Amino acid sequence: MWLRVPRISLRTAAGEPPDHGWHIQVAEDSNAPLAPDAETVAIGSSGLATSSTTMRSWRRGGITLHHIIDPRTGLPGTGPWRTVSVCAGDCVDANIAATGAVVKGEGAAPWLERLGLPARLVDQRGEITRLCGWPAPADPAR
Description:
The chain is α+β, with helices and mostly antiparallel strands.
């Protein structure tokens, strides 16, 4: 079974995972169609969440704003990460960690590593950082 975990609406699966886990496509655009060659991750009885500044954003006064608010400033976060996906014990903890990582900015990677949470962070240029065992994309030739 292929699932997508979008950032705007919630889609879930319940019950025992298949033998090789739930395969979830990881993408920045939650509205894009599923792509057979897209990066996926398999999880068992855990949760995965993605927080992103790219989908719920708008421009006001020539400035791009988004929905992830830094509680220290009351303004949209301005850190280096535009998208963070995290795997945790359940979806609530994964969502807290993913959103927290976007807000933490430069401190996100060491924080996630201290927590031991597998994560995939995409910076403003599109460069991907994988932490704590987050798998590299499968070789399409295999």
